[in-house]
Specification:
This protein has a single domain, classed as Class I glutamine amidotransferase (GATase) domain (Rossmann fold, 3-Layer(aba) Sandwich). It is built from six helices and 13 strands. The longest helix is centred in the first third of the chain and has 15 residues. The chain is globular and about 45 Å long.
């Protein structure tokens, strides 16, 4: 099984690739994990990981600057129906638009806006930086299978995806109010947190993604 980590100049690419390689070994999954900025390689991969670090508009600009890359991802998310995992801003790009330093269009796969965190508790700092406990549903998505109650993940963000359809929010955290931690539909999943920095929780999520059959 081939996994493509999309390289468009944003994200912890090597860390994500190494975490995927470790998760693959632990899950007994064979196949290469390739960091690539080649749209043809992304289109040919059986699974795709879209990372992202920084501002929404900058990430979108870097991604759309690669000729053919948006189209390869659109095909993967649509007609080709390949499992696609977005991380942090990579997940936020699933949204209709991002409102960080202006308005920027996203892919629209998960309808909603990426808006600034506005915690009710004024003592909570922006960005949210550090560990937070996931609120898991009673019937978790396959990506979340095997996570124990009280599982924590590592976050670094100032903006979050406010989804229009609550059924597309697969897990939340409390940061002065509910914040989408995991979103998804069909063959798409995304985490606001960084699985590559989330130790056992992150490795389990990545292993679940690699063995997922949507």
């Amino acid at each position: 099984m081939s996994v493509a980590v999309v390289d468009y100049g944003s994200g912890n690419l090597r860390s994500a690739a190494k975490a995927l390689e470790r998760a693959a070994r632990e899950a007994g999954v064979a196949g290469p994990v390739v960091v690539t900025g080649d749209p043809e390689a992304v289109a040919a991969a059986e699974r795709i990981v879209l990372p992202g670090v920084g501002a929404f508009g900058d990430c979108r600009g870097g991604l759309f600057a690669i000729d053919g890359m948006p189209q390869a991802l659109e095909e993967a998310a649509g007609p080709r129906a390949r499992p696609l995992f977005g991380i942090c801003v990579g997940m936020q790009l699933f949204a209709t638009c991002g409102l960080e330093h202006g308005r920027f269009e996203g892919f629209g796969w998960i309808p909603g806006e990426v808006v600034r965190l506005t915690p009710e508790d004024p003592h909570l700092k922006i960005p949210q930086m550090g560990w937070n406990e996931l609120r898991l549903p009673a019937r978790p998505h396959p990506l979340l299978q095997g996570l124990p109650a009280g599982a924590h993940a590592y976050f670094v963000h100032s903006y979050h995806l406010r989804a229009e359809d609550p059924t597309q929010v697969l897990a939340e955290v409390d940061y002065g109010g509910p914040v989408a931690a995991v979103v998804g539909r069909d063959t798409l999943v995304g985490t606001q947190f960084h699985p590559e920095k989330s130790q056992a929780t992150g490795l389990r999520l990545l292993a679940n993604f690699l063995t997922w059959s949507p």
